TrEMBL record:
<dbReference type="InterPro" id="IPR004839">
    <property type="entry name" value="Aminotransferase_I/II_large"/>
</dbReference>
<dbReference type="GO" id="GO:0030170">
    <property type="term" value="F:pyridoxal phosphate binding"/>
</dbReference>
<keyword id="KW-0808">Transferase</keyword>
<dbReference type="InterPro" id="IPR001917">
    <property type="entry name" value="Aminotrans_II_pyridoxalP_BS"/>
</dbReference>
<dbReference type="InterPro" id="IPR015422">
    <property type="entry name" value="PyrdxlP-dep_Trfase_small"/>
</dbReference>
<comment type="pathway">
    <text>Lipid metabolism.</text>
</comment>
<comment type="pathway">
    <text>Amino-acid biosynthesis; L-histidine biosynthesis; L-histidine from 5-phospho-alpha-D-ribose 1-diphosphate: step 7/9.</text>
</comment>
<dbReference type="InterPro" id="IPR015421">
    <property type="entry name" value="PyrdxlP-dep_Trfase_major"/>
</dbReference>
<dbReference type="Pfam" id="PF00155">
    <property type="entry name" value="Aminotran_1_2"/>
</dbReference>
<dbReference type="GO" id="GO:0000105">
    <property type="term" value="P:L-histidine biosynthetic process"/>
</dbReference>
<dbReference type="InterPro" id="IPR015424">
    <property type="entry name" value="PyrdxlP-dep_Trfase"/>
</dbReference>
<keyword id="KW-0028">Amino-acid biosynthesis</keyword>
<comment type="subunit">
    <text>Homodimer.</text>
</comment>
<keyword id="KW-0032">Aminotransferase</keyword>
<protein>
    <recommendedName>
        <fullName>Histidinol-phosphate aminotransferase</fullName>
        <ecNumber>2.6.1.9</ecNumber>
    </recommendedName>
</protein>
<keyword id="KW-0368">Histidine biosynthesis</keyword>
<dbReference type="GO" id="GO:0004400">
    <property type="term" value="F:histidinol-phosphate transaminase activity"/>
</dbReference>
Amino acid sequence: MFDINTLLRKNIKNLTPYSSARDEFQGEASVFLDANENAFGSPLPTAYNRYPDPMQHAIKLRLKEIKGLPVRNIFVGNGSDEAIDILFRSFCNPGVDNVIIVPPTYGMYQVSANINDVETKKVVLTEEYQLDLNGIAEAIDEHTKLIFICSPNNPTGNSINREDVETLLANFKGIVVVDEAYINFSRQKSFIQELTEYANLVVMQTLSKAWGLAGLRVGMAFASEEIIEVMNRVKPPYNVNEASQQLALQALQNVGQVNDWIKETLAQRDKLVLTLKDMPFVLDIYPSDANFILVKTTDATGIYNYLVDKGIIVRNRTNVELCEGCLRITVGTPGENTTLIETLQQYK
């Protein structure tokens, strides 16, 4: 049985969050003299002299329509990285608790653990880039608070078997975090639909990938009301700035445009795979549910340096466990992909 009170840090249980001016008054008024803002405006075409909505209500109402979730189950943060950090600070006692990560995976889980002085137990994925359930079960102890699973996974691109994640959710007394940054490109359905089934599930998504808003830093977490309440209590009062809120809300009205880009990205990914697999230095291209592919080569570092010299930047992952000899290549525009292919065809 999941009990959030057995997981929370004692100081977080007793935390009184900062009460901002915009928390204490919400609504319309003609004169605002409560927040010590610059009443004269901003030296910009758009006035940013007022503090933003600390709870991002307009964005959450739009996300409610898109995701089919109540507002009380939605957290909006300064990128997904903020949600990761808040989970560490809420549930993990520094120097005492631990989390489980399953490399190769997104590197920020480890970085955030290090910042918060929390031990990471690494259970390496199988050769098929799937969960080692027995290894995870052996790694769990009384101080294990979180398990991070990236699906579709970065840098491998594949989705994690749904049944394996459900096994963890059903048997682990801590929190299972499913990071779905690339879910819009996947054939698998989101774990958001399972929130009513599992009180210990946190699903993270982002507007950085399919939505094309990486520069705005807007991330989302979806979870039970009690977990979201904790995250809102711990976050900074104005964690998402006004410009990002306004622009994100505009973008969220354009679902059709985003869906068209997703279809084009997937078509370009398939073309890229077909062309690359016939190149003599390509040993394997792993199945991808993301907007990138992981390509195993005869000389990842040599190819990477060659592309850099030509002004083309991919990601060299050869030093990552289970990714030896691999390059991670993001799917670009048709023109960018053509430039990449033509350049690689000249590689000796």
